[in-house]
Amino acid sequence: MSGTARPDGPDPEAARPAPAEPEGGESACWLDKVCAACGAIQDTAPFDRCARCGAARE
């Protein structure tokens, strides 16, 4: 039985550290895409009028 883990021994997988979470993703600031009147996120930035409520961009 040499080279095999005993059922009651430590788990070799448990000793390995967890992989780090990947960094990245979308930018944190969507302020230039938010309608001030209704809070809708616009598909494009900059925008002239809100696609949901029609309010002019401030």
UniProtKB/TrEMBL annotation:
<protein>
    <recommendedName>
        <fullName>DUF35 domain-containing protein</fullName>
    </recommendedName>
</protein>
<feature type="compositionally biased region" description="Low complexity">
    <location>
        <begin position="15"/>
        <end position="26"/>
    </location>
</feature>
<feature type="region of interest" description="Disordered">
    <location>
        <begin position="1"/>
        <end position="26"/>
    </location>
</feature>
